[in-house]
Structures are given as C-alpha cells and as structure tokens.
From TrEMBL, chains A, B, C, D:
Species, as recorded: Lacibacterium aquatile
Pathway participation: Purine metabolism; AMP biosynthesis via de novo pathway; AMP from IMP: step 2/2; Purine metabolism; IMP biosynthesis via de novo pathway; 5-amino-1-(5-phospho-D-ribosyl)imidazole-4-carboxamide from 5-amino-1-(5-phospho-D-ribosyl)imidazole-4-carboxylate: step 2/2
Any Pfam family matching the protein: Lyase_1
Reactions catalysed, as given in the entry: N(6)-(1,2-dicarboxyethyl)-AMP = fumarate + AMP; (2S)-2-[5-amino-1-(5-phospho-beta-D-ribosyl)imidazole-4-carboxamido]succinate = 5-amino-1-(5-phospho-beta-D-ribosyl)imidazole-4-carboxamide + fumarate
Gene3D superfamilies documented for this protein: Fumarase/aspartase (C-terminal domain), Fumarase/aspartase (Central domain), Fumarase/aspartase (N-terminal domain)
Keywords in alphabetical order: Lyase, Purine biosynthesis
Name of the protein described by the UniProt record: Adenylosuccinate lyase
PROSITE patterns reported in the protein's UniProt record: FUMARATE_LYASES
Keyword Transcription: no
Top-level EC class as recorded in UniProt: lyase
EC number: 4.3.2.2
Span of domain Adenylosuccinate lyase C-terminal: 349-429
Amino acid sequence: MIPRYSRPRMTAIWDSENRYKIWMEIETLAAEAMAELGTIPKEVPVAVRARGNFDVARIEEIEAETKHDVIAFLTNLAEYVGEEARFVHQGMTSSDVLDTCLAVQLTQACDILLEDMDAVLAALKKRAYEHKDTVMVGRSHGIHAEPVTFGLKLAGFYAEFDRGRKRLVAAREEIATCAISGAVGTFAHLDPYVEEYVAAKLGLKPEPMSTQVIPRDRHAAFFAALGVIASSVEHLATEIRHLQRTEVREAEEYFSPGQKGSSAMPHKRNPVLTENLCGLARIVRAAVVPAMENVALWHERDISHSSVERMIGPDATVTLDFALARLASVVDKLVVYPDRMQANLDMLGGLVHSQQVLLELTQKGMSREGAYKAVQRNAMDSWLNSKNYKALLAADEEVAQFLKPADLDKLFDLGQHTRHVDTIFKRVFGE
Amino acid sequence: MIPRYSRPRMTAIWDSENRYKIWMEIETLAAEAMAELGTIPKEVPVAVRARGNFDVARIEEIEAETKHDVIAFLTNLAEYVGEEARFVHQGMTSSDVLDTCLAVQLTQACDILLEDMDAVLAALKKRAYEHKDTVMVGRSHGIHAEPVTFGLKLAGFYAEFDRGRKRLVAAREEIATCAISGAVGTFAHLDPYVEEYVAAKLGLKPEPMSTQVIPRDRHAAFFAALGVIASSVEHLATEIRHLQRTEVREAEEYFSPGQKGSSAMPHKRNPVLTENLCGLARIVRAAVVPAMENVALWHERDISHSSVERMIGPDATVTLDFALARLASVVDKLVVYPDRMQANLDMLGGLVHSQQVLLELTQKGMSREGAYKAVQRNAMDSWLNSKNYKALLAADEEVAQFLKPADLDKLFDLGQHTRHVDTIFKRVFGE
Amino acid sequence: MIPRYSRPRMTAIWDSENRYKIWMEIETLAAEAMAELGTIPKEVPVAVRARGNFDVARIEEIEAETKHDVIAFLTNLAEYVGEEARFVHQGMTSSDVLDTCLAVQLTQACDILLEDMDAVLAALKKRAYEHKDTVMVGRSHGIHAEPVTFGLKLAGFYAEFDRGRKRLVAAREEIATCAISGAVGTFAHLDPYVEEYVAAKLGLKPEPMSTQVIPRDRHAAFFAALGVIASSVEHLATEIRHLQRTEVREAEEYFSPGQKGSSAMPHKRNPVLTENLCGLARIVRAAVVPAMENVALWHERDISHSSVERMIGPDATVTLDFALARLASVVDKLVVYPDRMQANLDMLGGLVHSQQVLLELTQKGMSREGAYKAVQRNAMDSWLNSKNYKALLAADEEVAQFLKPADLDKLFDLGQHTRHVDTIFKRVFGE
Amino acid sequence: MIPRYSRPRMTAIWDSENRYKIWMEIETLAAEAMAELGTIPKEVPVAVRARGNFDVARIEEIEAETKHDVIAFLTNLAEYVGEEARFVHQGMTSSDVLDTCLAVQLTQACDILLEDMDAVLAALKKRAYEHKDTVMVGRSHGIHAEPVTFGLKLAGFYAEFDRGRKRLVAAREEIATCAISGAVGTFAHLDPYVEEYVAAKLGLKPEPMSTQVIPRDRHAAFFAALGVIASSVEHLATEIRHLQRTEVREAEEYFSPGQKGSSAMPHKRNPVLTENLCGLARIVRAAVVPAMENVALWHERDISHSSVERMIGPDATVTLDFALARLASVVDKLVVYPDRMQANLDMLGGLVHSQQVLLELTQKGMSREGAYKAVQRNAMDSWLNSKNYKALLAADEEVAQFLKPADLDKLFDLGQHTRHVDTIFKRVFGE
C-alpha cells in the first residue's frame, strides 16, 4: 500500500483514528453488556458513552512507554472517563478488542470492495449492451478463430466479476465474527452474553469458538477471495492490453486531450493503466500464501500472524480497491474502434467461416474426408495467395455440387455467429 | 501426486479409463440432444449407446499419430460404433469435451473430499466429546496461560474443518458447469439446448458464458478452497506435533504394538504422520498461485492453463484426499494422556489462576494497583522459589483482607474455566 | 511430473533403481572409509563391492513389512552380501543415506539442466547471428516504438539464459554436499573422515554442519534458481506467442508439413508449444514457496520437508528439463518472417523515427518547444490521415529551415538504430 | 513496510529525497559523458554540478500536472540550472534514469542488509563459542534423540546465515547494472560510452543488453535471495520459540526488568519477538512470486513490473532489515538456561545413550539381534517404570558379559557426543 495506488476512503479504514474509534465502541458495548448482567456498575457504560474519548498522539505517547497498545488506549480512555474506567475491559483480553476490531475493519473494507465491484459490473454491462452487436474476430491462441461480438466478450467478464462479487459476499461473512471470550477463549472471566451483545450491535456473529484469537482460516479464505478477484482484474486488463496493440488497435484506454503518451508519436498511446492493473493484481495475490501460512498458529495462539496482517490487511484491500476503481474507469471510458474490429475480421478473406462450410458440406451429404479436402484446398489457396475465400469456393466444382451461391452467402453470414447473443446475454444479465 | 501419498479411489478419477468414460458419456448425451433437435439422425445416439466403446491402448496408438487426443478418441469410438459415428461431436470443439470432463472429474474428486472431511469431522467430534472435561493448560505463545479442556481444543478444530467443508461445497458448485458451446463459445454450430441437456444429465449447470473454455476464475477459487483446507490440516497437525514433544507428551500418534520408532529408544515415538501432513499441506497449497495465474488467458482462450491443470488437478486432490484420510485416522486413534495434561497444568503451582485472583481482588474493592502488586508479589515468589501459589496468597496479609481461604479455593477451582464448555459445544456442534 | 511432460533421462534419476544404486554406493564408500580407519573389518567393503546388489521388488516387499525404506534396503543388501553386511551402515543414520542421495540426484539433475541450458543458448546464439540485421519494430507497451533487430531480441534472451545458467551452476554448488554425521550430526558414532571420504568420492563437499539432515536453505536456494529460469522460459515463450498473433505474424513455431492446427483453417497455426511453456513455468515456480517453507525444520530435524521434496524434486527438475528442451527446439526451428517484420515496421509510415527528428531539430538549434510542435504537428497529420511522415516533414517550411532532404534521409535511415548492434553482440557473446 | 517494522536508515533509501538525488547524479554523470564525447556543450555538466538542485514539493507539484515523474524532475532541475538544462537527458529515456536508480537503491539496500547479516553472524558466533560446551538434548521430530551442545546448534545457524550472506553478495551483483541505452535499448540516440561512464562512476556494471528496461530476471533472483534468508530467519526464530516453551524453558528472549509479559504471571514471558520474526519472514517471502511474475514483460518492455517493485522494493528490504536487526539482538541477548538444558537431557534417565550401547554391544561381538533385544528390554523397563537406565544395564546379566561398569560409564559419557565439536566449529568458523 503506497499513496500512489491508494484511495482515501479505504486507507481511512486502516488509520489509527478509525481503529481506536472501533476499539472504543467495542469496549463501550462490552461494558453495556456487563452492566446489564450486573457484573459491573450500571454507571460505567453511561460514563463511557458520555465522556469516552481518545487522542491518538496521547495514546502513542503512552504506548511508547508501556509497549502495549491496548493498555495505552485504556489508559488514555480513563483520562477522559475517570474513575468508572477501571471497570472497562474487565475479564477481557487484548485480542478480544484487536480481533473484533479487525473483523469490523475487514467488513468495512469489504463493503467498499463490493461497491467497487458494482462499479466494474455496471461499466461492463453498459459497454456490453452498447457493443452487443459489434462483431469482431474471436481469437484462440492469439490466432483468428470465428466471429464473436465485443459485447459478448464484455458479458463474459461481467459473469466473471459477478462470480467474484458473490465470493466477496461469502468472504465477508467468513470474517464478520466477534470474539469476546477472554484469555484462552473459555469465557472464564466473563459471560458469553457479552460477546453476543457486542456482536449483535456491531453487525457481526459471535465466533462459535475462539481461542483468544479468531481462527485464521477465516482470514485465509478472505484473502484468497481477493486473490481470485485480482486474477480476474489481470484477465480483463490483459484483454485490453492485447486489443490496444499497434497491430490490433481495436480498443484503447481513454486518453484525455491534453495527455501525452509519447511526446512526438501520436500512436504511442500506451495501455499503461491496464499494464499497471496487471502489476497490482500480482501484489493482491501476494497476500494469499502468507494468509494461509498464518492459519497454523501454535496452541491457543501465537502472534506470528499479527505482523503479516498489519501489512496485508491494508495492502490487499487498498490495492484491490484502487485497482477495481481504475478498472471500472478504464472499461467505462474505453475507446472502441468497430471499424478496426471489422477490418481485422476481414483480414483473412473469410477464412474464419471455413468450419461452417465444412459442417454444411458434411450435412449436405459429402463425405467427411471429401468435405475436409475441399475446404482445405481452397483455404490454402486463399491463405497463400491472398484470394477471396468465398469466391474460391463458389468456383470450386466439387463444392458447387453441394453448395449454391445462396448457401455460401448464408454460410458466410455473420448472423450465424451472433444468433445466440441474446440467449447468452439473458443467461449473464438475467434479462 | 506419487503413489506413496495416494489412495486408489481418488487416483482412479484421473485415470485414462475414467476420462474416456466421461468423454463417451458427454458425446453420447450431446448426440441425444442433437437427435432430439433433429440436427442429426435419431439412430446416432442409439447406435452410440448400443455399441459405443473405447480401448485406451488403441486411443494412445492413434494419438501418437494424430497428436490430438479428442480426435484419437473419436476415431476409436467410430471403430466400435460404425457409420453413425460421423455425426458424433458435430459442431462441437474439443474443449467442449475436455472442459466438461474436467468439471465432472473435479466434482467427483470433490465428493470424495467431502467424505474425507466428514471422516475428519466425525473423528474430531467423537474425541471432543470424549475429552470434553479433560482439563489441560491452554497455551498462548507456547507459554502456559489458563486452563482449557482437550475437548474444547478439538471442538475448535471441528468448527474450523466444518467451515472448510462449507467452502468445499461452495467450491464444488463453482466448478460444476458444463460447456458445449463450440469454437469460441457462440453456439454458432449447435443449439444451446445441447449444452443444457448434457449439463442436466451430468448434474452440472450450463456455463452461462464460455469462450471455448470455461472461465478459469472458477478453478482458481476451487484450488484456493483446497489450499485453505490444507492450511487447517497443517494447523491441527502442528498442534499434535506440539503435544507429542518429549517435554509435553500430552498426546501421541497411535503406534501399533509391532511398530518401531527408534529400535532402541522406546520414547522415540515420532509424530511422523503429522509432520508428514505439514509437508503435504505445503504441496496442496502450492497449487493455489498457479491456478490463479491460469485465470488471465488471452482472448477467447490460450492453452497455457492446460499443462498446469494436468498436474495440479490430480496433485492437489489426490494429496489432500490422502492427507485428510491420514488426519482422520490420526485423530481417531490419537493416544491421549490426561495424567500428563494434569501434571503440566500443575507444573507452575497454580500460577495459571493469577488473573482470576487479580480480578476478584479488584471486584472485592482493592485498588487495581494494589491488587496487581499483591498478585505479582506472590506470583514472583512462587515462580522463583517454586512455592505453592495458593498457599502464599493465603498467607499474604493484604490479600487476606479481601479473600478468605474459601474464596481462594473457589478462585483456584478449575470449574471456573470449564463452566462454559457446554455453551461452546452447543455453538459448535449445535447440540 | 507426468509422462506427457517428461523426458526419460531426467525421470530415470528419480527411479527406484537409481536411488538404490546411489544408496549402495554411499554405503560401500562409507564402509571403505570405516575399514580404512579400522572401525570395521577390512573384508566388509571388499565383500560389498564384490557381492553387493539389490532387487527393487524385494526391497519393496521388505519395506511393506518394516515400514522403513533404508532398513529394507540394508536387509536386501545383506541377502546378497552375507555376514559382512552387519558392519555396513554402522554408526550412520538413515538420513545420512537419504540426504546424501538427494544431493547426488539433484546434482545429476542439475547436470542435465545445464546441458539443456546450453542447448537453449546455442539455439538462441545461432538464430541471433542469423537475424543480427533483420530489422523489425521494437515495442514498448505493445505499441510500436523504434526499430530493433530480431537478432538483438534474441541476444537479450541469450544474455538472460546465460545468467540463468550461472545461477544454476551456483545452485548446483549449494546442494552438492554430503552428510554422514549420525543421529544428530555430532559424529558421535563415526569419524568425520567417513563423511570426507564419501564426499570426495561422490564429487560432493562435506556438509560443514548437518543436524541429521542437510540444512534446507540449500534446497530452497536451488528451487528458487529453477523458478527464476522458469520465469525466463515464460518470458521468451510470451515473446514468441506475441510474434505469432495473426495480426503480427512475424514468427511462428515450426509446423511439420503433416501437422494440423485446425483442420480447415491454414492460418490456424497456434503457438501451442510456447503456450504450454508458459503453463510449465507456473508449475516449476510452484516449487519455490514450499521449498522455502521447508527451511524452518524443528530443532535438529523434523520430517515435514520429506514429502514435499519427494514431489517437487522430480516435478520441478523433470518439468524444467522438458520445458528447456522444448524451448531449445522452438527457438531452433522458429519460422521467421522478415517481410512481415518490415511490413509492420513500415505500418506507421515512418512515425517510429519521430524522436530522432526531434533530437536533430534541437541539435540544429531549434528550441525544444518549437521542435516538439513541428514534430508533433506532422506526426498527427501522418497518423490521422495515413500520410507519409517523411514527405510531410520535407514539406514543412519550419522544419525545412533546419533539415534538408538529405538530413531527413539520414534520420529515417535504419542504420541509426542498428549501428551499435555489433557492440551489443560483443557484450553479450563476447566475440 | 509499515513504521512499526521499519528502520530509518533503510526507509531513507526509498524516500523521494534519495531517489531524486540519485536521478540528479545519473543525469549529471550522463551529461559529463556526453560533453566529453562532444555531443553536448562542455558547459552543461559544469552548470549542473554547480547549480543542480531539486525540491521534492515542487517536483510533486509539476508531476500533478504533467503526470510524468521524470519530466517533472527535469523541469524542476532546469529551474535551478537554467538554459544549459535543455541538453540534459538528451537521447535518454525515462527508464534509463528509473532503472539505473533502482539498481543504485537496491545496492544501497543490499549493503545495509549485508551489515545486518554481519550483525546476526557476529551474535551467533559469540554465543556459539560461549556455549560451545553447553550440553543439551538434540531433538529429532521434537523427541529427545542424542546430546548436542547449544554452541553446535548456533554454529549450524551461523553456517546457514553465512550461506545467506554469500547469496546476498551474489544477488547484489545481479542487480548492480546500469542502463543508459535509450528508447528500446539500441543506443540509437546516444553512445554506449555514456552508459559505461555512468556505470563506472556509480559502481555498477553496464547492462550488456537492455531493452529500455533492465531485464527482470535479475530482480527476481534478488528477491528470491531475500526470500531464502527470510526462511532462515523463520528457522532460527522457530528454534527459539521452541526452546522458550514453558515445558522446555532452555532459553528465553531477553526481558528488560520493567517489561511486562503478562501483568500477573511472571512465567508469561512470551517469545513475541521471534513469533513476530516468523510473520515478517512470510512477508519478505511474499515478494518472491510477484518478482518472478515480473520477468515476462511484453516485447521490449511493458510497465506491469513497476507497481510491483514500487511496493516489494521497499517492503522486502525494509522488512528484512528490521527482521535481521531484531534477530541479531534476540540472539545477542538471549537468556540461556544451561541447568534446564541439563535437566531436560537427564529427563529420560540416560535413554538417549541407548544407541551408543547398542553399537558397543555389537562391536564387542554380541549378535545384532541379541544386542537389540537387550538394549530394548532395559530401555522399556526404564521408560515405563522410570528407572535409571544405566543401573538397569549394569544389572543385566547378558549385558554384563560384554560391558563392564567402566564400559558403561564410558558409553554414558557425554564426551562421546562432544568430541567432534571442535572439528565442526573449525569447519564452520574456519578457526
């Protein structure tokens, strides 16, 4: 996470300010529950609500001495609240605050990421419908295959990001749990009701079984979900980079009028945003293995996961947020060149229709071998000598026995390839 | 995947035999649908059902020539079926067969993994209830903290594996899709109905939008789910390795009477199974990043993912199957030493109860600072001079003002730590 | 490692046959050293040399009973050698045999990989010289930049693989150590001379300090070196895939006359080999993190690394061997289309020379801003209206003040871009 | 990289200040070389040396407009230098500055890391000699095996970190190259001499063949070397965590008198530093795969690697610097408990000597089977009934035929296990 690839809304989640704010809410809610149970005086939560406050600089000052962040926070809190503060945090362990806070931060981050996904999806959908019928060549192995439409391509990415969104919703559920269970998770010094109360108020679920810490398989699953989404970002970014190649030039990242790619070469509009997205994807993905290595904590807990999460928590969410926002904008403003698409499609003189011809010849009764030879003979002639493939077929006597010019027209009709676009759109967009 | 860490039921899924069997079913079902639509003669699927067969050796022979596995298969199939075979596979592309087959194999693999998870869960549950009340020391940072029970520990792992199971169910759904959509996924040469028909018969869903291939974010999510489960395997295995250390010796992997650890040293019962599980976890996890790197295929597809999947498909599923089966057996037969657990718990003369004393002193009205000093003063004396902590507290005049011997008995009562075990078990096991 | 991506010479290294052969050599050499020291009778190594033998099936039979591979081997060896066999392996631990054997296997594997690298280097060098002066457009961001030559491109890859080779030599040295140091590496039951003797005879160095096992940072460094080479394989393979795109078509993987890409479409020569290489690179790279996770063994050793190495040892070396051999062949037989390179270079009507014009205008005294405007004005006109850039510049009055037609010819001369090719070749090839 | 795990000396390398300082030096040196060649006026480098300066805030201001960091820098530089600045950077491309700067930063970082390694090595050596003869039990699989010394253990780590240091030296050489070769690396607009001159002055080597960018296999190898060192950090940290376990307590991280582990439990000295080091190792290692994924840039370059390096460059070096410094301090101040080591060694009543007894019985002529039975019979009795093993052997009639009490004393003498410590120390420390 570096400023260059960060957006303030997401970085704010990981600020000290937000963290202490969440801590205070957790402590206050826990005090409310304890007061309700009669474990601590009723006045305590009232006092904390009334006078509770914190000062980041002051906390850091105290922490420099005590070397303990939660104690520093509580000391500072007590400076505002006064005498009642001694009942705050009673029976709790630091991890109750830290892990529940992380859960809140990750759900907050997740909510932004879900909005980001929605923006990507909206852009993809808009552009998909806009180019539903914009024909272009489909490419397998980077080699021309058969026609598709640009809208179809985008619809495929829509479906992919939609799956990513669903995984994100599931990932959010994974990490949205609250633990207020004490030193080793046994509720030895406080009632499970406290956890239930705090969880409910924070929109979390009580962690069924914590061991001072919330189990880290949850976080591993969370970061893995981000890693898969990052891979989809790389997928779409790679597609655009390909389309923008000088020789292909079917689409381009938007260039503002004043923007310079290369000062002197107007064609030098580099797909720097999507290249950048490919790099960012690698960074988000880099969080996955460390998060998995964090799972095997020793016994009831060790603290090896903590430094990892202090870094990958912000890194992965901030970077993915930035990447998704950038991607949505790239898609939204992508400059599409239907003429170039058509030109590339026509580049090979109709050879992309050869499979269709082959099928039809077989259907019409020609032997598979015969059909294959006829199709290939003319394809080779067209390819090597840059002749029009349809004309060659029309002139081929053997072919003519099975296919009339009108048949050929039908076979070379792009409609053959686009007739199920609506079906696919309905599947993808449900409408 | 190597024989040493493989089980035949899972490896069979990845055998040529099973692969061709699935291919034949896909081709047959597709032919049925096409015949139903009238695209090909009604006799075709009938003939294929009646005479369809294949011979692995013969296919390999043909493939050696044609360098194309699906064509080799179809040629061999035709040798059994005869003339009608020419209508088989019409309008389809090899990937329609390959990707749908992979979906079937992965779901088959998933079903075994789900059974494996059930076995692990069953073993954990059985042993958890058996040791629900077997007290032992809880350890944070490898250092004695407060008491837990061995049953609680296992319940925590049950909850973790239960989450893993849920992720596996979701992962299964991710990859259970069928693509019969032709060269670039446009259904240019066949009707979407064929895909729907085949999908339904195979227990899959039609892929909403394929591009010759099923999009690889699905597979990335699948392998990521396996990676998280593998990390949980490492988690539990690490726990057992710790418990089996010579100095701890609270549990041991089962040793058959005849088995030799070290010939001459009877204490040399090495936790080799759980150490092995930690290694296997690394292998399963190694599939995650390549699977994510597979997502960004070029345009409608390239074939870079194929070699990766040919290896990680079997590797990850076979290894995880083996690991889970081994883990279930380790848990099921784990030799537990409650006496050693009690002995370790008592090792520090009751110091594990100091937080409870501290809390109670505060509750009884002693100042936090005073309580802390009293608790620590006696704790240090106990620790440095190996004295009984409870006795020291009883003899401390300041403490005595707040706590009577009966109070101390209550504070040193393990019941304090186990009173919520039932609550937690209910949360975890739902009963 | 699967047969499809394996070559017999490398897989043979990982066969039982080779493993037991190495074990026998280690045991025999160790016996020779011990006999020399007088620790065991002189007859022992003589007998083992004379009658020592093994039978893989028989060893497996014994292992099925004893569950211990080294004991099974020794038992079988004794069946051939007789009475003297009881002195074999004296004071040694199984790991002495296993780890030293792995060192031998990895150096054997490394030697093949070094040959593979030599083949790649030879192919690159040959083709680099062949196309030293074959001009083509250089591309940054996939967008035309300035001219390069295809030979230069290959020279760059030569330099990269040459670095990979050096790393491989260093990696070989890392893992070429021998440990015969007993149960915990203290030589408690045998003399360090035994290790020195065996090491020397096997072409290894004695491990300065083993702890039953050879430390695993060595292996981590080894697999990391393979991972970097695999990434270079991906790099070169990606380059070729790009050059083979339909729209670029500057080079193609060799297609044998009989080979079919797509049956009916002659242009459908898919870069399947290089796509495959990209996948194989991911697999080799997947060994890196597990190998690093293997480093942190517990105390003097645990056995978690073993299962990992049983898989990644063969997987990474066999796959990289296959990949390098395939790559050498792809480069060697690559079909290059200089005409297409020239055509693509000319595609933009000389715009690739604009930076040169800009520089010259400044050199000739035009202000930077003025020069920039002049260059850009004409570039835009050329780009948008497909006009010849050089002609536009010649007709531009402002430009004409500084540049004569002859100057323009010089600026548009490709020689400007190729004049240092020899220098670079000398740097790379040292000749 | 976050402040909590950063040290100012390393973070300063990655500051804007340092980056621009390096840029200015590169531009100045390049100008000197060009002036020497006569390409630009002699006054230019003189002016830049005399008046060259920059202002970070001002550069950022300009960059906000131009969106180009190098242009912003040059503009700001011109504000200080004046007219002569127009000749600066002539014929160069931004990457010439950026990549050469990165090389300088990485070598600077490497130099600090080498010092860090030296500190770790010094601490290990000091403590190794201090505890050369401090006996303790060696453990395989976490189970008591045979005696070692604590000094030996540390010597093993010394050797491991010494290898890491050598790899770091090699890694430094990998990335210490300079590229001043223009738009696509052909020196089309400047003489190779410029690169040679700048390289020599900066202590770098000219990159034999750059393509606008320095090839990224170099950086991949660099980060891989850091990843292996990080794994060694994890290795040593894991060892210490094990030794500090409550039940083992043979060593402890130093606790300052005022420091609180747990307020009330004096035994609760948690190995938080070494746990933290395990987490930091995961973070450093996380840079390895992205760095490898960076290698396969498209054609002469794309910019996907840039965002990755902007993050992993600082992250990996800063985190490893912090980790090594922390590790050196942990080792240096580690509190060692020889009494506890002795107590644990004695825990099993001499069973750790059983292999020695077995060997000696065989040496003395007892049959292998007989010796084995005798050793095991007494070992089982000792183990199950907590009897003294040596006494049992002495009382065993069959054993007594071969071993006299004096023989037993010798066999139970720890000297047997420590007699080669000097040899090993000499191997490791060379003295």
